[in-house]
From TrEMBL:
Official protein name in the record: RND transporter
Entry coiled-coil feature ranges: none
Annotated compartments: Cell membrane
Membrane topology summary: Lipid-anchor
Length: 480
């Protein structure tokens, strides 16, 4: 009867633990519901430039060499690689928790039992037994020596540890996508800095050319002053214009140096001259681009891939946090030699082994588990919003890039026509000035307009390259 009562007590206790643990276990997870549009600006291209490697997209060999150098030496790139290694180690650690933990153990201790304790009385009485020999007599205090192996293994009954491993693996994949994102961003950043440098080189040549022209104009007006055909005011106006242009040259030289230093920094160097032999005006623009359909961003863009994997990892965290409410089974086997006399430790009679199994369920520490679950759910929602944000940003960047390529192309053609008109106007102004039908202010204005138009042409050409680079980056190109 007593055994039957004990059976019902154990059954009731186990059922209570299971019910208490299962109360907070639900299978619902946070999901993304952001649908992608069908096309970009009404386009229907299916072949995307994201599949083009850097060497195919950029025609400048010097630029490709700079990008290759950066991938080997850039600090951000090296840091991203180490994040991948750290995530890989986390996966190995999570996988190891699914296996038994086996430890080699050497333990020594001593304990003095009181005379009025169960062990104290039992040990004292045992020493008077005729069934033991002298080696089995228990000393007081009692030493304890153990040499062997001990293990602890939490059996993954509900898949809690498996969910933790899955989360770690997904974050490892996310770190790889993050590393590819660094590659894409780094390639784009170097390309932008490179073409900015070419534009500055072109600006410098334009300024130098106009400096020579303005110096000649100043000499002419000085001669005219000596002949009484010009005034000191005209001389000072031409001189001021020349000084302004020379000041622009000094400023542009500084910008060139800063651009060179920026490229050296990105490639992991301390400085030096950046190899380049192409003017921004004659550099080859990327061929006509196709960007594919918006849904391809989900496959191509590393930031969207990273956000998607982080979302999946956060959902795995939710699964692990919910399964933490369920009872856990832990087995603790051991095997080795145990004795209360050091000289008998390796005696065959000291060999011992055993196993202990324990089923535990959270009761009073449920608030901590609830807090961990709520944190996991909140982080999963954050991952959803970040995923949606990256999708929206990707679509916006591609749309902006497509429009920029078209509009900057039209702008450049109009600027070419404007420069032709201004150059013709300057030539006419010079002819009229020689015959006295135009004043010096018209010459100065015409020269300034031509200079500004040429600089605008160089900057517009640079913006055309930057638009192509931004579009290449926006569709996720550069890391393959």
């Amino acid at each position: 009867m007593l055994k039957k009562a004990n059976y019902y007590i154990i059954l009731f206790t186990t059922t209570t633990l299971l019910v208490a643990g299962c109360q907070n276990y639900k299978a619902t997870l946070v999901e993304n519901n952001k649908a992608m549009p069908a096309t970009f600006n009404g386009g229907t291209d299916t072949l995307t430039i994201a599949t083009l490697p850097v060497k195919s997209f950029f025609a400048d060999a010097n630029l490709v060499t700079l990008i290759d150098s950066a991938l080997l030496a850039n600090p951000d790139m090296l840091t991203a690689l180490q994040r991948v290694e750290a995530a890989r180690a986390n996966v190995r650690g999570a996988a190891a928790r699914l296996l038994p933990q086996i430890n080699a153990t050497a333990r020594a201790g001593v304990e003095k039992y009181g005379d009025y304790t169960q062990n104290g009385v039992g040990n004292y009485d045992t020493n008077f037994s005729n069934n033991i020999n002298s080696d089995q007599k228990i000393p007081n205090p009692v030493p304890d020596y153990f040499l062997g192996f001990q293990s602890s293994w939490e059996v993954d009954l509900w898949g809690k540890l498996g969910a933790t491993k899955k989360a770690a693996y997904l974050r490892f994949l996310a770190s790889q996508s993050g590393q590819r994102l660094v590659v894409t961003s780094l390639a784009a950043e170097i390309a932008k800095a490179y073409y900015q440098l070419l534009a500055l080189d072109t600006e410098l040549r334009i300024i130098k050319k106009n400096t020579v022209l303005q110096e000649k104009a100043l000499e002419i007006v000085k001669i005219q002053k000596l002949g009484g055909r010009a005034t000191e005011l005209a001389v000072q106006q031409f001189l001021a214009q020349l000084l302004r242009t020379r000041a622009m040259e000094s400023l542009t030289r500084q910008q060139v140096k800063e651009a060179e230093n920026e490229l050296s920094f990105l490639t992991g160097k301390f400085g030096g001259t950046i190899p380049r032999d192409t003017s921004i005006m004659s550099a080859k623009l990327p061929d006509a681009v196709k960007v594919g359909i918006p849904s391809q961003l989900l496959l191509n863009r590393p930031d969207i891939q990273t956000a998607e994997l982080e979302l999946a990892a956060a959902n795995a965290d939710i699964q692990a946090a919910r399964k933490a409410f369920l009872p856990s089974l832990t087995l603790t086997p051991y095997v080795g030699y145990n004795a209360f006399k050091a000289g008998l430790l390796f005696d065959p009679g000291s060999f011992t082994y055993g196993i202990l199994g324990g089923l535990t369920a959270p009761i009073f520490n449920r608030n901590a588990l609830k807090a961990d679950l709520n944190r996991s759910i909140a982080e999963s929602k954050i991952a959803v919003y970040n995923y949606q944000k990256n999708i929206l940003a990707g679509y916006r960047e591609v749309s902006n890039g497509l429009n920029a390529i078209e509009n900057y192309g039209q702008y450049y053609e109009l600027k070419q026509q404007e420069l032709t008109s201004l150059t013709n106007a300057l030539s006419v102004a010079n002819d009229l000035y020689v015959v006295g039908r135009a004043n010096y202010l018209e010459i100065i204005t015409a020269q300034q307009s031509v200079l500004q138009a040429e600089l605008d042409m160089a900057n517009t050409r640079r913006d055309m390259f930057l638009s192509s680079i931004n579009l290449y980056q926006a569709v996720g190109g550069g890391w393959r």
